[in-house]
Amino acid sequence: MTEFKLTAPFTPQGDQPQAIAKLTAGLNDGLQKQVLLGVTGSGKTFTLAQVIAEVQRTTLVIAPNKTLAAQLYQEFKDFFPENR
């Protein structure tokens, strides 16, 4: 499997490092359901990208509509340019 290599012009800030650590630990401990809550623009997609890079696992991301799906696709494509 190809390594997930995150490319981003910024680093985790504020509550993001703690959220990344908790989500990563939960996945490594076998938790099947976790929730990441945040207001619009708080960096949820970036936080999830960090978790994907940490755990190195293929991930299914589901969006509630086509507009958000297209936005997420573009953001993840930008975060993981070597993983196309």
Q: Quote the beta fraction.
A: under 5%
Largest sheet: none
Q: Can you name the CATH architecture? A: 3-Layer(aba) Sandwich
CATH class: Alpha Beta
What is the end-to-end distance?
12 Å
CATH-defined fold name: Rossmann fold
The CATH superfamily turns out to be P-loop containing nucleotide triphosphate hydrolases
Describe this structure in words.
This protein is mainly alpha-helical and 84 residues long. It has one domain: P-loop containing nucleotide triphosphate hydrolases (Rossmann fold). Helices cover 46% and strands 0% of the residues. It contains three helices and no strands. Helix 1 (16-28) packs across helix 2 (44-55). The protein is globular and about 30 Å long. It starts with 15 loop residues before the first helix and ends in a 5-residue tail after the last helix. 11% of the residues are buried.
List the helices and strands and how they pair.
Elements: H1 16-28, H2 44-55, H3 66-79
Helix pairs in contact: 1-2
Task: Explain briefly what this protein structure is.
By secondary structure, this protein is mainly alpha-helical. It has helices at 16-28, 44-55, 66-79. The protein has a single domain (16-79), classed as P-loop containing nucleotide triphosphate hydrolases (Rossmann fold, 3-Layer(aba) Sandwich).
